[in-house]
Amino acid sequence: MLLGKVIGSVWATQKEVGMENLKLMIVQPIDCDDNGVGIPVVAVDRIGAGVGEKVIVSRGNPARMLFPQKVVPIDAIIVGIVDSLEASSLEVGEH
């Protein structure tokens, strides 16, 4: 899983079979300090995340497992909207 921030949405009127009625969002992976890390991903959103919200994204086979009745060609899905986040930073060499 990764922490990310929704930075946009994708509109596609033509989608592969199994993707009907699925909302697609662009998510920028972030670190605990809200800094962008890596490249944005397109993720399915079934929980109603909006642009600007921090989200939790599941990737790979676990993302597809949320659709047990059908095969869907997805590799990322938003599984949570972050209400708050608390993390301590470790300096290099600290244990």
Please trace the helix and strand order, writing H or E for each element.
EEEEHE
Question: How many strands, which pairing sense, and closed or not: the largest β-sheet?
Answer: 5 strands, mixed, barrel
Query: How far apart are the first and last residues' alpha carbons, in Å?
Result: 24 Å
Q: Tell me the fraction of residues in β-strands, as a range.
A: 25-35%
- Strand tally is 5
Low-confidence stretches: none
Estimate the helix proportion, in percent. under 10%
Strand adjacency order, main sheet: 1-2-3-5-4
Please tell me how large the radius of gyration is: 15 Å
Q: Quickly count the helices.
A: 1
User: What is the assembly state of the chains in this entry?
Assistant: single chain
Structural class: mainly beta
Average pLDDT confidence is: 87
Q: Any idea what the shape is? A: elongated
Question: Your description of this structure?
Answer:
The chain is mostly beta strands and about 100 residues long. The chain is built from one helix and five strands. It has a five-stranded mixed barrel. It starts with a strand and ends in a 14-residue tail after the last strand.
